[in-house]
Amino acid sequence: MKRLRALILGLACLAATPAAAADKLTVLLDWAVNPDHAPLILAKTQGYFAARGLEVELIAPSDPNDPPKLVAAGQADLAVTYQPQLVLLVDQGLPLKRVATLIDTPLNCLAVLADGPVKSIADLKGRKIGYSVAGFEDALLNTMLATAGLTNADVQLVNVNFALATSLAAGQVDAVIGAYRNFEIPEMALLGKPARIFPVEDHGVPSYDELIIAAGADKADDPRIARFVAALEDGARYTINHPDEAWAAFIAAYPELNDELNRQAWALTLPRFAASPAALDPGRFTRAASFLHQAGLIAKVSPPQTYAAFPK
Amino acid sequence: MTKLLAALAAFAVLIGLWQAIILLTDVPFFILPSPLAVAETLWRQRDLLLAHGATTLIEIAAGLLLGTLLGIATAVLLASTTRLRRLVLPLVIASQAIPVFAVAPLLVMWLGYGMASKIAMACVIIFFPVTVALADGIARLEPGLADLARVMTGGVQRPGGRWRLLRHLYGPAALPALGSGLRIAAAVAPIGAVVGEWVGSAGGLGWLMLHANARAKIDLMFAALIVLAALALLLYLGVDRLMRRATPWAQSSDPATLTDS
């Protein structure tokens, strides 16, 4: 009944001439649109944003590091970013606060070729490891290597930028860090080079939220954002409860994503969506900050409210 | 000397403008850091900047050398026979039509993440200006001079005649044109190297910029940018001076030359 009402409301909003007084919000994604963004996209296609008087625009960046900076500078309302990255940026003095979570487990992993010589973390000694710059990959790696008594000095790090799967498949590097287990891993299998993965949180890294949504620190209490997060929850709920219909709506909105890779990634991503995007675990921020502090990437560990707006 | 002063004044005005923008617009530091913050970072991180600057400089210099040799060889080929020109010229033009950004990932895939792919990028980007400038220079030689040379020396039939023509006539006549090509090459070669580093690398100024950007150390990003600009400028001035020394008979008409003759 509620959904029907939301739908009618949404349709009414769509039908109304230029969405009468809908509040505009711009959301910068972390990457090109992919199944990770399903709750956002479904909140849009199913009219949950419209039902709350919001007109939301989703924009993919050219560089995953730009969105939080643009939000801090007031060029956009919200940015999708990574929990450790947000801590790092806040430590650098960027006025940002986390307002919601999109994916509440790490997706990041260290990947090697399944039939390659690396069977354990210890086998990485002396090998070439590719990464895609997110600011904290060497901290992840250092922690993972430490579980096998190695350090970053025992390996050679290469920035491969966007070519995580291809550089590993082509044999240009022996391992990559920064690959997402729900996307690059099926991608590797489809390239005919199945991968073996080492999830970061299984190898010494404290669990964190892979994808969160950040707003400018001064706008975190804006009522529009509370409405946005509520609509996002509806989007997550719909995606989790009706995965097939959600997939159909997803590829109707982005026909270019209707391929085998995205279909597989969709199934792998479903269990990872935060069912309660507003929910906040302050301890996670403290642990992420301690982790970055130990790696020497941030100057000090601040209390959680420095990094996150506490939900009302 | 006056030119040097003028250049310094231009820089001073630029830095003044930069500071004025910050004072007037209140732009946040992570979008545009202050000149002072950047200067401080330049000094504090000098070891890091020097190490990565050296990597990039080696890539640029090697690319410049290889690209120039390749360009000269191609230009001589183009000039020597009409049949070859028909074959090679479309390839030269095509090399220019390919956007460097598009081939960068491929070059990295083929040549790996080391220096080779960056040198190849610099090569690709400078090959065209060098080839075209030199081929032009050779083609523009006054026909009368060539005839005269042939008559006076017995032409190319004599042993080594072709080489002597090249050495005493075509070479000196075409060197100034090659100089213009090289000046352009020196100005664009850094672009090739840095694009290569962005696509994938373990060091260099391009690598450092990406890294600084991800950690919101924008002052370091600007510092790397300044070092890169300084490298490019020094390289340009070096090539410019070298070409003037090599071609004392040529009246430079290049408006972009900065050094006093």
Automatic annotation (TrEMBL), chain A:
GO terms for molecular function: ATP binding. GO terms for biological process: thiamine biosynthetic process. Residues 1-21 form the signal peptide. InterPro entries: NMT1/THI5, SsuA/THI5. It comes from the Bacteria. The keyword ATP-binding applies. Pfam families: NMT1 (PF09084). Keywords: ATP-binding, Nucleotide-binding, Signal. Residues 34-246 form the SsuA/THI5-like domain. PANTHER family: 4-AMINO-5-HYDROXYMETHYL-2-METHYLPYRIMIDINE PHOSPHATE SYNTHASE THI11-RELATED (PTHR31528), THIAMINE BIOSYNTHESIS PROTEIN HI_0357-RELATED (PTHR31528:SF3). This is ABC transporter ATP-binding protein. It comes from Oleomonas cavernae. The lineage of its organism: Bacteria, Pseudomonadati, Pseudomonadota, Alphaproteobacteria, Acetobacterales.
Automatic annotation (TrEMBL), chain B:
Keywords: Cell membrane, Membrane, Transmembrane, Transmembrane helix, Transport. The keyword Cell membrane applies. The keyword NAD does not apply. Residues 53-239 form the ABC transmembrane type-1 domain. One of its GO terms (cellular component) is plasma membrane. It is a multi-pass membrane protein. One of its GO terms (biological process) is transmembrane transport. Coiled coil: none annotated. It is found in: Cell membrane. InterPro entries: MetI-like, MetI-like_sf. The chain crosses the membrane at residues 57-79, 91-113, 119-139, 184-208, 220-239. It comes from the Bacteria. Belongs to the binding-protein-dependent transport system permease family. This is ABC transporter permease. It comes from Oleomonas cavernae.
